[in-house]
Amino acid sequence: MSLPAPGAAGYVGRFAPSPTGLLHAGSLVAALASWLDARAHGGRWLVRIEDVDTPRCVPGADREILRQLATCGLLPDGDPIWQSARSNLYQSALDQLWNEGQAYPCACSRKEIDEALAALGVQHERHGERVYPGTCRGGLRGRAARAWRVRTDAAGGTDTLIDWHDRRLGAQRQNVSAEVGDFVLRRADGLWAYQLAVVVDDAAQGVTHVVRGEDLADNTPRQIHLQRLLDLPTPAYLHTPLVLAADGQKLSKQNGAEPLDLADPLAALRRAGESLGLPPLPAQAALADWLAAAVAAWRRLHP
């Protein structure tokens, strides 16, 4: 049984790991899902190293992640790119938003934002969204800029409602103005925010389909908002089930998830396939044969 070759179809998918640590069981699920979806649709699969948060990146983790993917037979259809080398693209996007009146500098610290919200009777919950109240929309009033934000109010000052469809979760809606507020594009430490970088890079790489973990579904309306402001295409989205740790929390590097044990890569792939709802596949197959069977199974699940 052989793998289908990457086709000339218009489909372009991607896997975008952050090198703050090595791949773990949860990130392999996301990598496998995005690879399977690309192969099932005869498309191309790219890898992007999302290393804009440089202080949190682990030296050498990027190359080790690429080695982990190769060990599992998940090979990209082109050279990987690193976000840390693409600052000029993000600056161009920010300049466009600024020139069009859709972005502005912000002087507020987190403490000041919390105080402003408290004055409005809004209590910020720990780990909850800190909805920016728009303090600096009208100007800095002589204060020094710390960060840059994008406006989320629609024409006439109305709220921005984003309706979108997820291939697994179905119809989704978010009031970005009320639930998020004007969010950061460039941080106070000078680093680029994830939301801007991912939107710019998805468009620059021609990504048509985004397959990623369900924990990122809440980010999608923000990214669609930026896509519309920058006149960029909106990909199709599919958010996969989360892999949970024994305590019921999302399995993540922040929660101490162990790096993948790839002494038996096929066993790791089988576990990832189970998390994605794939039916039992040949247990004794060679790696390439198992991947080919997984592509066929994915095609039936997600036509």
Automatic annotation (TrEMBL):
The keyword Zinc applies. SUPFAM superfamilies: Nucleotidylyl transferase. Residues 14-256 form the Glutamyl/glutaminyl-tRNA synthetase class Ib catalytic domain. GO terms for molecular function: ligase activity. It holds the Pfam family tRNA-synt_1c. Zn(2+) binds at C106, C108, Y132, C136. L-glutamate binds at R14, F15, A16, P17, S18, E50, Y194, R212. Belongs to the class-I aminoacyl-tRNA synthetase family. GluQ subfamily. PANTHER family: GLUTAMATE--TRNA LIGASE (PTHR43311), GLUTAMYL-Q TRNA(ASP) SYNTHETASE (PTHR43311:SF1). HAMAP family: Glu_Q_tRNA_synth. This is Glutamyl-Q tRNA(Asp) synthetase. It comes from Ideonella lacteola.
